[in-house]
Amino acid sequence: MHVAYIGLGSNLDGPERRIEQALTALDDFPLTHLVKASPCYASAPVGPQDQPDFVNAVACISTCLSPLALLDQLQALEQAHRRRRLRHWGPRTLDLDLLTFDDLCLDLPRLKVPHPHMRERAFVLVPLADIAPDLIVAGTPLPHLLARVTDGRLRRLSPQR
Question: Domain total for the chain?
Fold first, then answer.
């Protein structure tokens, strides 16, 4: 079994409900089990500011899927939630990012692991620290990554699942 961390985000059509639905769906992926999920957080959007704030969370899963097979499942779930890619960093019903996969480092055309922007995003690192405070990401302990970001307008919405 592999351990992967998934970033979840939504800012359209009931974002907290969508995050909860996505967490349930992650547990239903083939050969996959939801281990733990962080609380939900509200955060300002990255990129265009003319959109609602996001709701974000992080999930830990165990899986027998390969990284690309897991990516395919994540993208299919986004499509099931009618994700439309109309604008870079624009609003979305559901955004799922494969943050880490074991201690693997991948640089493929379709997938980069660890996620290339996670180190600069409090809305990823804070919920990740809630469920994996001792995680090491590409050789860097998570507390060191957290020390380098500001949480801005990050606001905790729900208790840990």
Answer: 1
